Amino acid sequence: MDVVVAGEPLVEFSADHPLTEAETFRLSFSGDALNVAVAAAAAGARTALVSRLGDDEFGERLIRFAAGHGVDTRWLTPGTGPTGAYVVGADPSGERAFAYLRQGSAASRLTPADLTDSPAALARVLVLSGITAALSESCDQAVRSASANATGQVVYDANFRARLTAPEAAAATLRAVAPHTAIVKISAPADSMALVGTADPVETARRVRDLGAPSVAVTLGADGVLLAEGEVFHEIPAVPARLVVDQTGAGDNFTGAMAAWLARGASLPDAVRAGTAAASLSLAGRGGTGRVAAAAEIEDLLGDPVSGG
């Protein structure tokens, strides 16, 4: 496999109105792990998603959805508990309000053995996240074990979620995983304040590097990405969006495209640039998988095809 992603795909019920007023919802599928996997596959990588799903109708539909987007679903296995879900609606300010239905989900019972029995250790790029680690103790162990046993490049998305875990627990996982990574992605200030105690992008990169990560991508929204590659800093601008419909999943599309580019042998700066292009294009769709960028689109938007090994 070029890219293997481990985590929880979710059923998505979305509305165009606040949750307190919404009466009609669209059914789709999202979650950070699924978004990343779909984005990586769309960008040309042979991609597998590793998780547990409920032995239910939603789990079956989710497998069909992922397969239809080019993701290898052989390691999406039935487990105890339901398939996780979330409900999302818009509020008058344009922000989106989320309600999660994932407690006790099948994916929260993911174990290190699930990763061992998958191609995770042999993938060119393995993508893990703080959300996956925060689902349960066994998920945290799976993330730590998979990062330590990987023979390819590990991409770790810090992705702190206060609803799932405390800053101290998330920071402990980051400390454990960072030395095994090729690159850590962390947003500032949302993730960085909670996990390394600073909103400053340069200081964020330095503190994560001090934990053992050789490279750090500090994502800054419309201000682009600060990439610390060893002692070298690159300021990579965001790609202006041609159309903005929904920002959900933009960071996941960034991670998926970046992973795909790394798998094809691109340099870290080129991989990050590909991620910024994919994130920009994703804004034109609704939901985390509503608009995913193909490799040719990314190259066209960047204006310079990326060569790799």
UniProtKB/TrEMBL annotation:
Gene3D superfamilies registered for this protein in UniProt: 3.40.1190.20
Pfam families named among the record's database cross-references: PfkB
Domain Carbohydrate kinase PfkB span(s) in chain numbering: 13-288
Keyword line: ATP-binding, Kinase, Nucleotide-binding, Transferase
Record-level Gene Ontology MF annotations: ATP binding; kinase activity
InterPro entries for this protein: PfkB_Carbo_kinase, PfkB_dom, Ribokinase-like
SUPFAM superfamilies listed in its UniProt record: Ribokinase-like (SSF53613)
Keyword ATP-binding: yes
Top-level lineage group: Bacteria
Keyword rRNA processing on entry: no
Family membership: Belongs to the carbohydrate kinase PfkB family.
The protein's name in its UniProt record: Sugar kinase
Organism: Herbidospora solisilvae
Upper classification of the organism: Bacteria, Bacillati, Actinomycetota, Actinomycetes, Streptosporangiales
